[in-house]
Specification:
mainly alpha, 8 helices, about 70% helix
Length: about 120
């Protein structure tokens, strides 16, 4: 199944294209990248973040792995950033609920159905 959860809800008439856009904007504002978090803490400069991102594009390694390997951050700093990042992560369905587009009950019910259909299609 290549259809995303938002497209699934859209096809069922439960949300609109505008709702998808608003939820994605909320996710973008909420789900901060590890480099942003490190910069906010004063652990990395914007230039450091850019250097690591360039290395990441070339190597396809994780940001934290590069930061540790090249001595920008310690392992404990990366672990702290990853925990903070995970603690605040907002999933698409959660964003829709937070925006009041869909109830938590309807989101969970539809997510279960979406995942069930996704599994069925993988078996084919």
């Amino acid at each position: 199944m290549t259809e995303l959860f938002g497209q699934y809800l859209l096809s069922k008439g439960l949300i609109s294209h505008v709702d998808i856009f608003k939820a994605r904007v909320l996710q973008k504002r909420n789900n901060r990248r590890i480099g942003e978090l490190a910069s906010d803490k004063g652990w990395l400069s914007n230039e450091d973040v850019e250097k690591i991102l360039i290395l990441q594009e070339e190597s396809h390694e994780k940001f934290g792995e590069i930061a540790i390997r090249d001595n920008y951050l310690t392992r404990s700093q990366v672990e702290e950033l990853l925990k903070e990042q995970g603690d605040h992560y907002l999933f698409f369905g959660e964003a829709l609920v937070k925006l009041g587009v869909i109830s938590m009950e309807d989101m969970i019910k539809n997510l279960k159905e979406y995942n069930r259909l996704k599994l069925l299609r993988q078996d084919i």
